Amino acid sequence: MDHENLKAEMISLFEETAEYAKKFHKKTYASDMDILLNRHGALLGRIREAFEESDEALKAAAVLIPEYAAGQLAAIPSKRKRDLACLDYNMNMVSFFVPLLGEINSVKTKEFTEKIIEIYNQKLPDNKIGHSTREQIQGGFKKGLCYITTAVCRSLDKPDDCYELTLLRDYRDQYLLGSKEGMNTVNEYYNIAPTIVKRINRQVDSASIYAGIWQDYLSPCVRLIEEDKKEECRKLYSDMVRKLEKKYLYS
User: Are 103 and 28 in contact (CB under 8 A)?
Assistant: First the structure.
């Protein structure tokens, strides 16, 4: 296997999927993935051949994109621009690039994609991402992806189709997924919200914690949406995610 040629091809694929990630939307996600699979079937086959050769070959192939991403970011002098570029890379990795590689038909595919995520998080420790698959993302569209909101509403004995959950899901679909910043908020959810919910559920005072989240964040978010203050809602929701992440993932 020509290592340098494979590297160039994988970088080209990464850059192409980045363009798809910029317009990430649940209505086009399945068709976008099908287009990428049909267009790059031969390349995915070559990637499979590379990581199936040996454990060493798998690691060598897995490191290519994390090293590329880290190098590109390191070349950006402005911290703000670097942070924004990193968010774009994270969104690409989570929504398209890794899920696309996850479609490779091999018993070692999951080991390969998980190794990519592991190395990526080592190279970019301040912006860690989680492993994702096409099936998880498409299943998440159907389930709503409002992990924390759903957990809070259930704690308050509100049904899954309650007014608040329906309003927030519509807000996500109609507003958040229509902008880059909104997509970044959704991206955070793919990676951290399920773990946050699990850790809150382990607390003896989980009901009190959920009541506090409702009072401080979700109820105000509902009011903001009702008042058509959608951007203010996004900022408040993002603030909630960051604070819960700091408290339940890194404390």
Answer: no
